[in-house]
Amino acid sequence: MISDRMEKPLASWRGKERYEDEVMECLTIIVKSGGCTYAACRMCSYRHERYHAESCDTLLAHMRAQLAWVMNEYDPAEYRMVKIFTSGSFFDPVEVPPAFLADVAGAFRGKLVIAETRPEYILEETVRPFIEALDDGTWKTPLYCAIGLETSSDLIREKCINKGFTFSDFKGASQRAHAAGAGVKAYFLFKPLFLTEAEALSDMKTSISDTIPHADMFSMNPCTVQRNTELEFYWKRGAYRPPYLWSVLTLLAGAPVHMTCDPLGGGQKRGTHNCGKCDYELVKGIRDYSLSGDRDLINALLETDCGCKQEWECVLAEEKPYCMPLTR
Ligand code: SF4
Ligand SMILES: [Zn+2]
After folding, report:
1. What is the Cα–Cα distance from 194 to 231, expressed in whole angstroms?
2. CB atoms closer than 10 angstroms to residue 296
3. What spacing in Å lies between the alpha carbon of 307 and ligand 2's midpoint?
4. Distance of CA 276 to CAs 34, 108, 284, Å?
5. CATH superfamily placement of domain 11-318
6. How far is 271 from 114, CA to CA, in rounded Å?
7. Pairing between β-strand 143-150 and β-strand 112-116 as defined by DSSP bridges
8. Residues whose CB falls within 8 Å of the CB of residue 176, separated by 6 or more in sequence, listed in order
9. What percent of the chain has pLDDT over 70?
């Protein structure tokens, strides 16, 4: 049902995305919802974005009004893919009233939809009807469930992120998604709290190879320091440094699959950064690579020289868990 009332979502924008070697127009929307039911990850500020103490009907009305705003603002003929995020999990029935799922599927029928959710909400009885309403035969896989797996290490996911689910939970969700006819997109978090640069690099390499059998699309988020988070608490006290762009390039160059990466806040103190002189070009190159899949570009960027490369190599060799971070 498309509402008469219109309400602007938290964010929305048009851009391009790569899908199976093709670059296509994509609409991304971040819908304000009832908020993440879990709401305990150390680096996350999205969980603060929510309607408070609304009845299910009022929440549904708010969300329908946002969908109406989106449909009014963007011409569906101009995009083929839709990425939909809430301030938590799209398939959580407490956060997103189930009637809203039907509205979204109807509104975006014939589009390729990527919807983010925690693994426990991926149930065949939820995903299958959503796909049936969405699918008009255009896509072999009309829906991808995007899961913030972050790492394949249960120890790191529990201690450094406090994510509240295991790799085995992710694998179970991936099986259920595939059984219902959906694909799976895995999001990795590069360099959560409490890891040295070298430990974080090694964790990502292992995580990527562990996850390949269980997902169809891959994306890596280098960690950024968001406001009002536990991560920010440590960062303000000098106990955390976001990753180097050199590390991100190393991971993209070595990954056995194409991984997209959009370094939010790249080149800034709260985001992935190097020395300030080489950052702009490297961030731009990483974004270009996400679309083009051109490994030569990534390898060429890795070969470029800057004084901070030696600093990064020294950090990789010398940083220890009991004396980190070595640099800011
Ligand atoms: S990262 Fe996802 S699951 Fe964790 S608190 Fe944020 S919205 Fe919730
Ligand atoms: Zn530099």
Report:
1. 10
2. 9
3. 6
4. 39, 41, 14
5. Aldolase class I (3.20.20.70)
6. 25
7. parallel
8. 122, 123, 124, 127
9. 99
| 3-class DSSP assignment, residue 110 | coil
Spans of all domains in the chain: 11-318
Question: Is pLDDT of 2 > 90?
Answer: no
Whether 44 lines ligand 1, by a CB cut-off of 6 Å, is yes
Amino acid at 69: W
At position 313, the amino acid (one-letter code) is E
Pocket test for ligand 1, best of 10, 30, 36 (most atoms within 8 A of CB): 36
Sign of CA dihedral 220, 226, 232, 236: positive
Neighbours of ion ligand 2 (CB under 5 A): 274-275, 277-278, 306, 308
Name the residue among 128, 76, 77, 73 with its Cα closest to residue 102: 128
User: What is the pLDDT at residue 198?
Assistant: 98
pLDDT tier, 323 (very low <50, low <70, confident <90, very high otherwise): confident
pLDDT tens digits, residue range 113-151?
Answer: 999 999 999 999 999 999 999 999 999 999 999 999 999
The whole-angstrom distance between residue 44's C-alpha and the CA centroid of its chain comes to 12
Of 46, 120, 224, which is best to mutate to test ligand 1, by the most ligand atoms within 8 angstroms of its C-beta? 46
Characterize 241-264 residue by residue with b for buried, 16 or more Cβ atoms within 10 angstroms of its Cβ, and e for exposed.
bbbbbbbbbbbbeebeebbbbebe
Pocket of ligand 1 contains residue 121 by CB under 6 Å: no
Query: Would you say how long the chain is, in residues?
Result: 328
CA distances from 288 to 199, 262, 318 (A): 27, 9, 32
**Cα(275) to centroid of ligand 1, in Å?**
30
Identify the band that residue 312 occupies on the pLDDT scale cut at 50, 70 and 90: very high
State the CB neighbour count (10 A cutoff) for residue 78.
9
Contact criterion met (CB below 8 Å) for 290 and 260: yes
Sheet of 217-222, strands arranged across? 11-19, 22-31, 81-86, 112-116, 143-150, 183-190, 217-222
- Mean pLDDT along residues 35-42: 96
